[in-house]
Amino acid sequence: MSHTKSQRVTQRTIAELAGVSQATVSLVLNGKADSTSRIPEATRRRVLDAIAETTYVADPAARSLAGVGNDLVGIFTYEPAFPQETSDFYAPLLMGIETTAESLGVDLLMFTSAPIVDGRRQLFHEKNRLRLADGCLLLGQKMDTGELNRLVDSGYPFVAIGRRDDPAGRIPYVGVDYANATSTLAELALARGHTRFYSLHVPTDAESTRDRQSGLVRVLDEARVELTSATTDGSDLEAAWRAIRKAQPTVLIVEDATHAHRLVDIAVADGVDVPNDLSIVVLGERTRPSERGLDFTRLAAPRPQLGSNAITLLHQIMNGSSDAVEPLPHRQLLECVIIEGATLGAPRIGSNL
Amino acid sequence: MSHTKSQRVTQRTIAELAGVSQATVSLVLNGKADSTSRIPEATRRRVLDAIAETTYVADPAARSLAGVGNDLVGIFTYEPAFPQETSDFYAPLLMGIETTAESLGVDLLMFTSAPIVDGRRQLFHEKNRLRLADGCLLLGQKMDTGELNRLVDSGYPFVAIGRRDDPAGRIPYVGVDYANATSTLAELALARGHTRFYSLHVPTDAESTRDRQSGLVRVLDEARVELTSATTDGSDLEAAWRAIRKAQPTVLIVEDATHAHRLVDIAVADGVDVPNDLSIVVLGERTRPSERGLDFTRLAAPRPQLGSNAITLLHQIMNGSSDAVEPLPHRQLLECVIIEGATLGAPRIGSNL
DNA sequence: AAAGCACGGTAATACGCATTAGCAGTTGCC
DNA sequence: GGCAACTGCTAATGCGTATTACCGTGCTTT
């Protein structure tokens, strides 16, 4: 727009400077030394010198059109990534992604232009721009399987972060083994002697939520131990707390970390001591140190590694697995770390609950 | 690579489906209703229907090549943006950028592939990829003026975040008026009766550091009040503290927030009460609630707005100021908020310092 | 009836790059 | 000396889109 036509430095410009053809410039730049077209050192030098004199960089759009990659990895987040509330969730992922992107030599393209409907970005829309990138990482708690399948059909390389239900096994993802981790936590609680479990989870039917529930249920069923389940979106935790008191569990399993924090406040105000009267275990993300200095017993997803693995896998999918390296599995579940905090005690007889 | 040729849905595909030419499809999609080429509703419908049947999306690379911008805004951060230490600094900026990018309808390209030397990303290097984006935002505490001027010369649209020294006035930036804010803080301290100032700042000669110093010096000079200055990179705050004790100031002005936190710990261990024995004022970024629950009197840059203004300005520079809107100034300084915390008291005679 | 005209649409081209076929000049070989 | 093989390079083409120049067709006007 602002540039006059002549401003832009293209391969043709370089070619004229070096006294060769545009094709030669391209060949030099791409280091093609096929038997079909060799270029002697002298010519190569002239071209490279000409490039050095100018500020030439290949137009990525043109490269892309011409069918070669651009080393551009897209990042699609279903919610804005940087506001305080979501940043705790995305930042560790992005950190892993960024670090690995650096070593892979790729740039990151964030699709912030996607229109937002009902608080979620729309993957497919009029001016879908996914193709700007060579491949794409999909981040978000919940994704539409239909959309993902459509993406698979299009042949566009992508990797989802988080396990995805997909019987056909066509959706590549890197997820967290929440089921297993939750089972371990439940066994821990059982070992401490807990007998009455209460699970408070979020109302979405995202895979991550279901996995946690199934992990919990599996262990408790096996042990023939009682489990009460309830959901809350966090809007009325007072009510949730009243329901909990009524059920009189010995241990409370809370999916969402912020819910857990607020519940403890309510519980303490209600004269209940944690963990002496009631143990609490947290299954959630977004855990930052409690105001109260409470160190929850919880599970912690290895999110930087999640991001790192995802972009590594995507990179492999994009560039075709070089036969040198062992191909990565297209569906990965990472182990979740269990953090032994201070909120899982032994059940107390005659608890104040 | 993996795609067979026929897979890809292009305008030609649509054209065949609708029984028109590729050109017509393009015209329909871009709503060109020039007198030179009108298209009746009937045809338009057929084309749109055909598009609806397929999963067609315009190839952004092709559009870009064809001369329409691709609404890509680059973000160059001199350090990795997401690790914990830097994230506190970048996240608020990115939040403002993201939000505004959304409403401007542009995508964000993060240049993570730039090689790192001495812990800082290199703006210019072999495979400089800035041109991938239509324009670029530059984030970082310190930037090389030479590099920035080279960027100006290239005609590439960019906006720096943070004030930049540049007598020629060619570098567009959106910065924070640290000088003024620091002056205000100093006046506040003077008004409370402080007579001995001690400034502890970071060793860089970044504009932001200098601005704070100059704002401080201006007010104190005017008031003919004593000021001791020292620098620290935070590696030996014990030594810094010993120097402070020796100087016996009534108020301590600390540039870096994390230094301030750690200094308070040292001071308290040393039997000094804040703010009764010693007042502290913080000029720095990256302030998160203290472990100790200490609420520093400090200044807080409006970082989300910084980001927002920067991308708005860049967008205007990229697209040429539409004559409809008032053109934005290419060099902006935003007012800094002063937060009246609990660490600036009145000086105490016979302080324990 | 010839000329003008609006309409509806298409062919052709440019954008910058990668890639292939192939051309002219040189060298190698028997 | 004749032919093949090789060397060093270029012309031509395609990628998918936007845009311009232009061409039929049927209708109106004189």
TrEMBL record, chains A, B:
<dbReference type="InterPro" id="IPR028082">
    <property type="entry name" value="Peripla_BP_I"/>
</dbReference>
<dbReference type="Pfam" id="PF13377">
    <property type="entry name" value="Peripla_BP_3"/>
</dbReference>
<dbReference type="InterPro" id="IPR046335">
    <property type="entry name" value="LacI/GalR-like_sensor"/>
</dbReference>
<dbReference type="Pfam" id="PF00356">
    <property type="entry name" value="LacI"/>
</dbReference>
<dbReference type="GO" id="GO:0003700">
    <property type="term" value="F:DNA-binding transcription factor activity"/>
</dbReference>
<dbReference type="InterPro" id="IPR010982">
    <property type="entry name" value="Lambda_DNA-bd_dom_sf"/>
</dbReference>
<keyword id="KW-0804">Transcription</keyword>
<keyword id="KW-0238">DNA-binding</keyword>
<dbReference type="GO" id="GO:0000976">
    <property type="term" value="F:transcription cis-regulatory region binding"/>
</dbReference>
<feature type="domain" description="HTH lacI-type">
    <location>
        <begin position="9"/>
        <end position="67"/>
    </location>
</feature>
<dbReference type="InterPro" id="IPR000843">
    <property type="entry name" value="HTH_LacI"/>
</dbReference>
<keyword id="KW-0805">Transcription regulation</keyword>
<keyword id="KW-0678">Repressor</keyword>
<protein>
    <submittedName>
        <fullName>LacI family transcriptional regulator</fullName>
    </submittedName>
</protein>
